[in-house]
Amino acid sequence: MDSLDSLDSLDSLGSKDTLRYEGRVAVVTGAGRGLGREYALLLAARGARVVVNDVGTGIDGRGASGSPAHAVAEEVRASGGHAIADVQDIATTAGARALTSAALEQWGRLDVLVNNAGISILRPLGELSDQDCSRVLDTHVGGTLNMLRAVWPHMAGSGYGRIVNTCSDALFGDTGLSVYAAGKGAVLGLTTSLAAEGAGLGIKVNAVVPIAATRMSLEALQGDEQMTAVLSDLFPARHAAAVVAFLAHESVPCTGELLHAAGRRVGRVFLGVTEGVVSEEDPTPESVSEHFPRIRRTEDFRTPHSVGASMAFSLARLGVGGAEPLALDLTTPAARQ
Ligand SMILES: NC(=O)c1ccc[n+]([C@@H]2O[C@H](COP(=O)([O-])OP(=O)(O)OC[C@H]3O[C@@H](n4cnc5c(N)ncnc54)[C@H](O)[C@@H]3O)[C@@H](O)[C@H]2O)c1
C-alpha cells in the first residue's frame, strides 16, 4: 500500500488542526439540521463566524420553522463560537439576497458559501406532480443559483471566495431519482462553469457529494433496518464536514471539482471522456456500432477541466494541433456590451 494511503499517515496529517477560519465569514444554507448543521459547527469551531441559514422545512419542502436555525446558532454560541441564525427561504431570490445582506450587515464580509439546503421527493417519473417538480428544482437549482448570484458580486469585489455546492450520488442514476438528480446535475454544471468564471476573481467553486445518515437519507431507506444501521454507523454527517471544511479553506488546491464524502472514505467524482475511436472515413451508424466496445472503454480516459480542454483533446485525437487547452471565450457578445 502507498504510504499516503495508509490510515496512519492520514490520521497524523489530520490531527494537526492547522486549517483555521479566523477572520472568515461563512454562510451555510440548510444548516439547521443534518449535514449543514455539522458544517456550521465545524467551521465555527475552527474560528469562522457563521450564518446558520435554515427555513425549517419538512424533507419534501413543505412547512417552515425558525427553530432549527436558531437552535444551531445557539449551539455554536454556547460553545464559544460566533453565529447568527437566518430563516430565509433560499429558493426565492429575495430570500437569498436577504441572507447575503444579513451576513454583510452583521460582519461586513462574506468569504465562504456552503450551498447545502435541499429537499427530496423521490418518486417514479410518472408519479411526480407539477408541484413536486417545481419544489425540487426551485430548491436545488433555484436555491443554489440564487445564492451564487447574491454572493458573487461581493466575493468578486473583495477578490476572494470559497464556494462549496452540494451534488449527490443521484448523479449516477437510480430509480425514483429523476427530478432530484436533475437538480443535482444542474448544480454540477454551475460548479464547473463558475469555477471557470471565478478563476480570475479569486473565487474557487467546488462541490461535495455526501453520503450521510440524516433524516433525508434515513427516510429514503424506508425502514430497511440493515441499511439504516449501516448508514448510521459508518456515515455520520460529521465525516462529510471535514471534506466541506477543506473545500471551504483558503488553501484549497482545486476548483470545479467534486469530492465524495462517504464516511471515512473520501474520493473524487469526475466527468471523464474516453480516448474513443478515430475512423479513417466519416463515421456511420454501422461504424459506431462496430467500434462501440472500444468507444466506451474506460481504461484510458481524460478529465478535461474546461470546454477548451475537451476541444483540444478531440482536435489532438483528430491529428490537428497539440493537446494544450484552447483559450475560448464563449460569452455571448451582447453580454459584453
Ligand atoms: N444525506 C445524504 O446522504 C445526502 C446525499 C447526497 C446529497 N445530500 C444533500 O445534502 C444536503 C443536505 O441534506 P441533509 O441530508 O442534511 O438533509 P436534511 O433534511 O437533514 O437537511 C436539509 C436542511 O435544508 C433546509 N432547507 C430546505 N430547503 C430550504 C430552503 N429553501 N431554504 C433554506 N433551508 C432549506 C431544511 O429545512 C433542512 O433543515 C441536501 O442538498 C441534500 O440533497 C444528502
UniProtKB/TrEMBL annotation:
Keywords: Oxidoreductase. Pfam families: adh_short. InterPro entries: NAD(P)-bd_dom_sf, Peroxisomal_Beta-Oxidation, SDR_fam. Belongs to the short-chain dehydrogenases/reductases (SDR) family. PANTHER family: DEHYDROGENASES, SHORT CHAIN (PTHR45024), SCP2 DOMAIN-CONTAINING PROTEIN (PTHR45024:SF2). This is NAD(P)-dependent dehydrogenase (Short-subunit alcohol dehydrogenase family). It comes from Streptomyces avidinii.
